[in-house]
Amino acid sequence: YAKLKDPIKDKITVTNMWPYQKIWIASQTDGDGALIGVGSNLSYEYAEKALKQFETLGYLPENELERIEQSSTPYRRPPYSFVGDGFLAVGDSACVTTPWGGEGVPYAWLLCQIASEEFGKAMKEPGILKKESVWNVNLRYQELQGALFAKNLALLPGALSCKPEENDYEFKKSIIVQDESEQGQGWILINAYLIGEKIFKHYMNYPKDPTGMKDWIEQADALWKKTVSMATLAEEDLALIDTKIKAVDNSAQIDN
């Protein structure tokens, strides 16, 4: 939460976002203030360093910090199966969040809706539920959302393995949003796009019952090993930020 130093000139009327840095600014209930958000992997400390580095670029209006709120969201691949004997994983425990922004509520509710329908039918039968009776939860979720999210998760490192200007262009031209007419147009995303498509097709070919799961998992593991981890990119970026901070500190000491 920040107080704008010149609320008349810098009044926030629309939300602005810088996808490469995962930073955004929006209005708040106080007309003289603004909400400045930053998302990152690894830690809150990394997010703070990323924001400080971004502030040096001059995109944000002059402001005075009022307070900080922090929260986390699960950001990793969901489990290959959401059901077991008498068991269901949903929401944050199932890591059901959108790959691009980390939001989870509407996407988790889709899984909840599917589960309520399938478990509702299965619970009419006596005894403890067996995973075979609710396996359709997995099938329906992968077809409606899971396969697409898996593809996007594979695409994301490719989208971010570029310069900030290139990343902004990708978002501006809808190269990395879900517009089928523009899929694969960004040369920077070719490798990530190809593996993402393979992962998408594999998830759409999810086993019809648990008996085919062992082979399916082996193939899925092999595909995911070909992707780049967002945590790896974050660690590399954090090391780069720390190097820049040290260089600035050393320069200041020399000047003094």
> Biggest sheet, strands in spatial order?
2-3-4-1-5
The overall pLDDT, averaged over residues, is 84
Kindly give the count of domains. 2
Biggest sheet: strands, sense, closure? 5 strands, antiparallel
Strand content: 5-15%
Would you report the number of β strands? 7
Shape: elongated
* Helical stretch tally: 7
Spell the H/E element sequence.
Answer: EEEEHEEEHHHHHH
Could you characterize what this model shows?
The protein is an alpha+beta fold. The chain has 2 domains: 2-65, no CATH class; 83-231, no CATH class. The chain has helices at residues 44-55, 105-122, 136-160, 164-172, 190-204, 213-224, 230-255, and strands at 2-4, 16-18, 23-27, 33-38, 63-65, 83-84, 87-88. Helix 3 packs antiparallel against helix 5 (190-204). The two termini are 34 Å apart. Mean pLDDT is 84; it is low at 175-188. InterPro entries: FAD/NAD-bd_sf.
Supply the key terms.
256 residues; alpha+beta; two-stranded antiparallel sheet; 7 strands; elongated; FAD/NAD-bd_sf
Give a short overview.
With 256 residues, the chain is an alpha+beta fold. The protein has helices spanning 44-55, 105-122, 136-160, 164-172, 190-204, 213-224, 230-255, and strands at residues 2-4, 16-18, 23-27, 33-38, 63-65, 83-84, 87-88.
